[in-house]
Amino acid sequence: MIEARQLQKRFGSKTAVEDVSFRAPDGCVTALLGPNGAGKTTSLRILYGLLHPDAGSVEVDGALGVLPDTAGLYARLTAREHLRYAARLQGLSAKEADARAGVMIERLGMREIADRPAAGFSQGERRKVALGRALIHDPRNVVLDEPTNGLDVPATRAMRRQVRELAEAGKCVLFSTHILQEVAAVCNRVVILARGRVVAEGTPDELLQRTGRTNLEDAFVQLIGTEEGLGG
Amino acid sequence: MKVLAVFAKEALDAARDRRSLSSALIYSLFGPLVLAMALGTLARSRSDDGPLSLAVKGAEHAPSLVQFLEQNGIEIVPSGSLVSLSISEDYAEDFRASRSAKVELIYDASRSESRGPVQRVEALIQRYGVQVAGLRLSARGISPQVAQPVKLARIDRSTAASRAALTLGTFPIFLLMAAFISAMNIAIDTTAGERERGSLEPLLVHAASRTDLVAGKWMAAVLFNVLGMGLTLLVSFLVLRWDRLEKLDVPVALSPGDALRLFVLLLPLTLFAPALQMLISLFARSFKEAQTYLSLLIFLPVIPGFLFSLQRIDTEPWMRAVPVLAEQVLIGDLLRGQAIGPATQLIAAAATLLATMLCLAVTARMLRHERIVLGR
Predict the structure, then answer these.
(1) Residue B158 DSSP label
(2) What is the pLDDT of residues A156-207, one digit of tens each?
(3) Which of the listed residues A73, A202, B24, B57 has the most CB atoms within 10 Å of its CB?
(4) pLDDT of residue B41
(5) Which residue of A has its CA nearest to B207?
(6) Is the dihedral of CA A190, A192, A198, A203 positive or negative?
(7) Closest among A36, A26, A231 to A142, alpha carbons compared
(8) Which residues in chain A touch residue B6, judged by CB atoms under 8 angstroms apart?
């Protein structure tokens, strides 16, 4: 379970997050949906401790796995070495790290790239390694910042499947996106963010009911009050 | 141990990076070789006793002078020498009439290698003049000492080892610079480079403490620095045994014991430099900017180094407790053949290690700052 309470964050005179509160329960995919610049990345960064909020608080029960918005791989390290390094940083022993790296390589279908240096990886392969790194310690909670951004169709589908599987395994999954279809495809709950504030929260059906619309896109546009910054 | 995992990863990553490796190795190999070349040139210009060729125009006017020169190791050649002598046509007449006979020494002062020959020819001609003057005065019944009211005798108190230190004035600078070069690339790569690649954020979200991360990275940089320093000393040791340097008539050869003592003496600095470099790199906005800063940092040991080698600066007690400066003073002492007390060396090491810890602590702290982490 991840809970954010009245988060607020300023960078100089610019307010990135004004008032963000939501709850992401276990066994469920929660989407943080909003146009570009709505404060999604900043909110997530506060959740995983990279940024300190000016006000508000965060609660995460149990271990947290994070897929930040940049894969940030080391060009000279192989996929397996990345996974092993992440495991060691999470406090696993060398032996456990080897075993977990093997498990992630199988689960995410990285056998072909396992022992190749990351320099030649495609966007999708890079994201797989980054996801493997986030899940290496089998965390109860997973935060993913725009996990499908820049991926091709097969890679996107694979990523969505992974996200769903995590929730089915009982994890709390929170991911951010600016893509509406993503919400329909994977998530159980939506938190809509606009200009640093949560404007709506609930299941997709609840949002349709509340706005009286028949499709999510219309509901979304009505809730955020603009079509600006919406991706396709 | 997370810190060891960080160390292992960074060392492996750097070992696969040609840029890190080459920057660590090239200087270690070439620094001492450049020094050897400089010393070799010095050896050539200092070879006072070897034959010096000198073209003499109008030699027929001054046979006795020419003979005197030849007796003192000057080889008279027809033309093409670095320094040449021109004896005026009136020489013989003036000489006979006991007037000052004119001799011109022709040389190019912009060529530093002509300095030795000029001094040597000048001294010889002066000696010849004093001899002739003595003879003339004796012939007139006057003691030659009358014309020499004060006699200056030079007594050089410097020992062979202290002259070597003067000759090798640049050697400490090479060693101090070596401490700032071998780990430079890895120090940047693990800080500014990590941020520029976007791998700093994923790294920081793991459950490892900032201290573990910084310490592990620093250890990897230190590994490279120690290897580089060891190699620099090894190559220096080999280079200074070079035959040609024997002409310097001073024992410049580094004994294995000295090389080892230098290594121990420089070890704290080898630990300090990467810590400082990582801290500075973290403040840089990009890899390139960090490179610029650290290239300038290399000159840090050069500044006191040059002051020490160009002019005699008295060593003040406080200098022994300032990182870099303390090592500079100690290396000078060691090369001059002075004994270094364990307390002196301990103070220098303690000061440098304290500065190292401080840099590491500040670096770990900086990694908590959003501006530093996000590179804004």
Answers:
(1) -
(2) 999 999 999 999 999 999 999 888 888 877 888 999 999 999 999 998 888 8
(3) B24
(4) 64
(5) A90
(6) negative
(7) A26
(8) 89
DSSP symbols for B190-228: TTHHHHHHT-HHHHHTSS--HHHHHHHHHHHHHHHHHHH
Specify the DSSP element, H or E, that contains B301: none
**pLDDT tens per residue across span A129-154:** 999 999 999 999 999 999 998 888 98
Contacts 24+ apart (CB under 8 A), B302-311: B302/B173, B302/B176, B302/B177, B304/B328, B305/B170, B305/B172, B305/B173, B305/B176, B306/B173, B308/B169, B308/B172, B308/B332, B309/B169, B309/B170, B309/B172, B309/B173, B310/B169
Q: Tell me if chain B has a CB within 8 Å of the CB of A90.
A: yes
Cα–Cα distance, B184 to B19 (Å, whole number): 10
Residues in chain A: 232
Query: What DSSP character marks residue A109?
Result: T
> Which two structure tokens, joined as six digits, stand for A40?
């999604």
Residue B98: HSE in the Cβ half-sphere, 13 Å Cα cutoff: 8
Q: Give contacts of A11 with chain B, Cβ < 8 Å.
A: 376
Q: Tell me if A64 sits within 8 A of A141, measured CB to CB.
A: yes
| Closest residue in A to B189 (Cα–Cα) | A74
Is it the case that residue A216 has pLDDT exceeding 70? yes
Task: Give dist(CA A147, CA A127) in Å, integer.
Answer: 8
pLDDT at B156 over 80: no
Tokens of A89: 């940083």
Which pLDDT value is given to residue B185?
92
Which positions ≥6 away from B65 have C-beta within 8 Å?
A: B87, B103, B125, B128
- The domains of chain A, with CATH numbers, are 1-62+140-232 (3.40.50.300), 66-139 (no CATH)
Both tokens of A226, joined, read 């603009």
B197 token code pair = 């690649």
Report how far residue B283's alpha carbon sits from residue B376's, in angstroms, rounded to the nearest whole number: 10
What residue spans in chain B does CATH classification 3.40.190 cover? 47-147
Multiple choice CATH, B47-147, 1.20.120, 3.30.1490, 3.40.190, 3.40.1000? 3.40.190
> DSSP assignment of A113-181, as one string?
TTTSBGGG--HHHHHHHHHHHHHTT--SEEEEESTTTT--HHHHHHHHHHHHHHHHTT-EEEEEESBHH
Task: Name the amino acid, one letter, at A65.
Answer: G
**DSSP-based three-state secondary structure for A32:** strand
Asked if pLDDT for residue B354 goes beyond 60, the answer is: yes
Question: Which of B55 and B115 is assigned the larger pLDDT?
Answer: B55
Distance, CA of B126 to CA of B147 (rounded, Å)? 14
Q: Is A11 on the interface with B (CB under 8 A)?
A: yes
B5 interaction partners in chain A (CB closer than 8 Å): 85, 88-89
State the nearest Cα–Cα gap between A21 and chain B, in angstroms.
22
CB pairs under 8 A between A and B: 68
What pLDDT shows up at residue A232?
43
The yes-or-no verdict on residue B86 having pLDDT over 80 is yes
- Under the banding of pLDDT at 50, 70 and 90, the label for residue B139 is confident
Question: What's the pTM value of the predicted model, to 2 decimals?
Answer: 0.79
